[in-house]
Amino acid sequence: MPIREPSFRIGCGRYLQEAGILNSLGDEVIRLGHAPLIVGGKTALHLTRDTIERSVSTICQHYRIEIHTGTCNEEDAMAFAELATRESFDVIVGVGGGVMMDFAKMIAHFASLPIINVPTSSATCAAYTPLSVMYTKEGRTKGSFHHKREVNAVLADTAIISTQPAKLLLAGGFDAMAKYLEIKQRYSAESKDCPLGLDYAYILSKRSYEVLCDKMDTCLIDMQNQVFSDDVEQVIFTTIAATGVISGIARGSNQCALAHKFYEITRVLYSESAKPYLHGEIVGVGLLLQNHFNGECERNDALLSWMRENGMPCSITDVGVARTEESLNEYYTRICGSSAINKNDAEECARFSESLHYLWALA
């Protein structure tokens, strides 16, 4: 696959992860400016507003907290950027889940301001990685926007993130697992034309995959019991920071294969019925397709177990996709010829068709 981003944007300026780290938000703001515009989701701000105000109000005389309940779209991001410019805010702070993290980065982009992200879940690596997944205001996917600057700081407060529902943790786990399984679709250690850095992305993604498979069950139990164990810390770190590093090293190459193409097409074809489902939930269903295509269906046993035990979607109908010959053909046509499947390779297309039929048959 071609390189989508020429630069290696390997990290954010500062990544801080520990219980209670949100109390340091004011100190992080002062490193970058003096007047933060804080934008977050409704639930996220309900969880964090008191701590944020205590931390920021003692240091910053000028700040503002706003709620955003829409998608990550250009129109709304530009409106917030204009607000920041008009009222002399000089730092953007995003608070919430993956959509909010991406949206805050877009505000910072349009306003040409530094960005601090405060994730309240580990459902994606969006808080860390320097790209935004874009949508229309109605929720249709528009692709990814690669930022030229990295995120300035991430404050991952594990006391807050540990309160997230199990499905959010698993959604982040599935998204992180996809990095390894999707790179694996194309990557070969013997390849002589492998893009620079992809071998490191592969090694790191393999390690992340192993950590998540090994620690996810224990992490789910510990979170349910409000125990901030080392396993909880490591799983959160893996889904946010490590996965963000992998994305930056891969530079957009070979890391968006079948699982994420299934996600993208689902958002395009079934934007309304798929709207209630998280990015990682739909990617998780796509992983069932990915594993079959990779010849590793046995990996789906653990995935299906996690999905069913935690009330997550585990088939196409669960994410609003009609189980029809028409829908199957639509996915086949749209994915063949994309970056995921080479339409000129008859064997690859035939194998992909078999994998689609496998996914369509799952109840």
Structural class: alpha/beta
Q: Give the H and E element order.
A: EHEHEHEHEEEEHHHHHHHHH
Q: What is the CA–CA distance across the termini?
A: 33 Å
Quote the beta fraction: 5-15%
Q: Enumerate how many helices there are, as a single number.
A: 13
CATH architecture of the largest domain: 3-Layer(aba) Sandwich
Overall mean pLDDT:
91
Strand order of the largest sheet: 1-8-5-4-2-3
Radius of gyration in whole Å, from Cα? 20 Å
Residue stretches low in confidence (pLDDT < 50, at least 5 long) are none
Specify the overall morphology. Answer: globular
Helical fraction equals 40-55%
Reported for the largest beta sheet, the result is: 6 strands, parallel
The CATH class of the largest domain: Alpha Beta
Number of domains: 2
CATH fold description of the largest domain? Rossmann fold
Number of strands: 8
